Amino acid sequence: MWITITVRDDNARRGGAAPCELLRQWLDEQPELRGRTRRQTTATPPPGEMGVATDALLALLEPGGVAAAFAGAVVAWAQTRRGSQTITVRQADGREVTIVSTHVKGMDADQTADLARRLTADLMSPPPEEPTSIPGTGLHPPE
Description:
The chain has helices at 19-28, 65-80, 101-104, 109-124; strands spanning 2-9, 37-42, 54-60, 85-91, 96-100. By secondary structure, it is α+β, with helices and mostly antiparallel strands. It has one domain (2-124). Strands 2-3-1-4-5 form a 5-stranded antiparallel sheet.
């Protein structure tokens, strides 16, 4: 399963490596993730973002150890960041999870592990199925 990761530096600092590139380097240092990420530059920004191009990462994940290693590495990277970065992990079906580095810095080991487990579960959960009818009404969604 391919996922897209974007990183927004909420401090809007300039200079040095782009946050996405720093995260890619961090992920490539993890043996289970080495070679599973690549950089992607899109011609149009995601909805709600300004600018003409967006840096993103593509990551190839599998259920089990790879997904868990990815989730743990992303949370750990967020905890090491100065200032505030917003990391958005988007699945091909449009579902996304957002982590803000300032929200995870003060977590203890148990909270960090729990967040990584929840991120893994979110990444590996199947997309919600379309309802065949609207509960309690007998109506069907429009086609």
